[in-house]
Amino acid sequence: TEAHLRAVEATRGLNIFITETADIALRQAKAADERYAAGTALPMDGLPIAVKDLFCTEGVLTTAASHILDGFKPPYESSVTANLWRDGAVMLGKVNLDEFAMGSANITSYYGPVISPWSKGRRVQRDAAPAGSGVLAEVAEAFRQPQPVTEWEWERKLVPGGSSGGSAAAVAARVAMAATGTDTGGSIRQPASFVGIVGLKPTYGRCSRWGIVAFASSLDQAGPMTRTVRDAAIMLRSMAGFDPKDSTSADVPVPDYEKAITGDIRGLRVGIPREYRVDGMPAEIDRLWQQGVEWLKAAGAVPVEISLPHTKYALPAYYIVAPAEASSNLARYDGVRFGLRVEGKDLKEMYENTRGEGFGREVRRRILIGTYVLSAGYYDAYYLKAQKVRARIAEDFTKAWEQCDVILTPTAPNTAFGIGEKMDDPIAMYLNDVFTVPANLAGLPGMSVPAGLAGNGLPLGLQLVGRPFDEATLIRAAAVLE
Ligand code: GLN
User: Of 127-136, 232-241, 285-294, 444-453, which gets the smallest average pLDDT?
Assistant: First the structure.
């Protein structure tokens, strides 16, 4: 834990952490040491992790990367983080994200963008050792000795993906052993793909949403972001489980996911959906996808071409359903109950001032879209239509499971892009989620596994989607791909 805390310091220039909790980490680590000494170690004992700042942590600042939650210290702990602490995990701190998890690049955060550890740059200030050895070398040295806070000169700053950008960067930079993420339309899987780590979005209902700041309640799901498939298996087991405090939490047993890693996928039927060959997809993403099929085949799996005919409607449906639910969930930030208050001459003006100043551009855009599609004259044309599309997408998958056991696709249609790119074009940004949103709309588990580097030297991920509550099969197949 001490080494990881030094790594946190050494990488402050990446803007990963919103709140560092060294005191809590050292206290938890000490308790873990005592359990190890007594021979009573817990499943995640002493493992230093980062927590996406969307999980409420008792007495610890929780911001959702929004100005509107200024100073909010929840009097309660989210069920998922409580499960992790119960199993001995150590909290290094709360990490950056897109504001209210709305985004695909971690650039909508009130606290500024996260810089991907894959960015090209060099150190410019240094007490010892020659400058310019890169983020990983910096972290490696921090593990050996305390480091001065580093200044970087960046050639090109890359996004870590989003919305779980801080979580992705923390794991990729070796600052945390693992991190919690949340995924409403791809926010665990897409950043995992961008930085070359493993990200698992479980089945809707597998992990409790209680105490997680809500974005779109029928889509939100928490999951692990880790360096290896085995780590994801171990961490998911701790995070998951029935919770009576979340009415959508599923009362189904949580298997020992680590046992699923057998290396044996003989006979596993892998669906390749033809509709995912989208126009304009770079040739190398297609190549990587074929490569993934070959890898699975070599291990005994049987590829089958399948059809998910409503795929092209998934993205538009998502960008109606998600903002609709967000506009309702975000109604609670009124300047009275949480965080920021900006005074006005009367109550109404106080609401307006607080919400006008407290929410960033992207969040305001979503609230406008959401309230529009829910309003009396447009409800049937947009919201109801989107719900019908959602049902069709779920049906597509149900039919597909007659032919296959797991589905393989690319995680994202591109590698990480530069900070500042795509910022003025919300549609271009939304296109990042084209392969990930269907699993959210259908409530299915999805997992991104690192599958190599693109021609530009940046990581690419492959996505596995599985049957409801069958994360074990995803983990089994993912372990063959990694
Ligand atoms: N990028 C998607 C969005 O902006 C998904 C975000 C998420 O999964 N939280 O809504």
Answer: 127-136
With 0-12 CB in 10 A as exposed, 13-18 as middle and 19+ as buried, what is 19? middle
Instruction: Please state, rounded to an integer, the average pLDDT across all residues of the chain.
Output: 95
Q: Which of 184, 427, 430, 437 to mutate to test the pocket of ligand 1 (most atoms within 8 A of CB)?
A: 184
**At residue 476, does pLDDT exceed 90?**
yes
Distance CA 168, CA 118 (A): 11
- Average pLDDT of the residues in 268-296: 93
Shortest-distance atom of ligand 1 to CA 102: 4
| Residue with CA nearest ligand 1 atom 5 | 185
Residue 446 in contact with ligand 1 by CB distance below 6 A: no
Per-residue pLDDT, averaged over 77-81, amounts to 98
Classify each residue of 203-223 as buried b or exposed e, where b means 16 or more C-beta atoms within 10 Å of its C-beta.
bbbbbbbbbbbbbbebbbbbb
pLDDT of residue 256: 98
Q: Please report which confidence band the pLDDT of residue 138 belongs to, taking 50, 70 and 90 as the band edges.
A: confident
126: confidence class by pLDDT, cuts 50, 70, 90: low
Percent of the chain with pLDDT over 70: 97
Q: Tell whether the model's pLDDT for residue 431 goes beyond 90.
A: no
Cα(423) to centroid of ligand 1, in Å?
Answer: 15
Query: How many angstroms separate the alpha carbon of residue 183 from the centre of ligand 1?
Result: 7
- Is 15 touching ligand 1 by the criterion CB < 6 Å? no
Task: Give CATH for domain 2-239.
Answer: 3.90.1300.10
Q: Which of 158, 156, 151, 149 is nearest to 116 (CA)?
A: 158
Phi, psi of 62 (to 5 degrees): -130, 115
96 lines ligand 1 (CB under 6 A): no
CA of 138 to the centre of ligand 1 (A): 31
163 Cα: distance to centroid of ligand 1 (angstroms): 6
DSSP code for 58: T
| Residue 183 CB less than 6 A away from ligand 1 | yes
| pLDDT (mean) for 233-257 | 98
Give the chain's radius of gyration (CA, Å): 21
Q: What are phi and psi of 273, to 5 degrees?
A: -75, 125
Residue 170 has phi, psi (to 5 degrees) of -60, -45
Is the CB of 211 inside a 6 Å radius of any atom of ligand 1?
no
Which ligand 1 atom is nearest residue 164's CA? 9
Residue-wise DSSP of 8-25: HHHTGGG--EEEE-HHHH
Q: Is the CB of 97 under 6 A from ligand 1?
A: no
Q: In terms of Cα–Cα distance, which of 94, 68, 374 is closest to 212?
A: 94
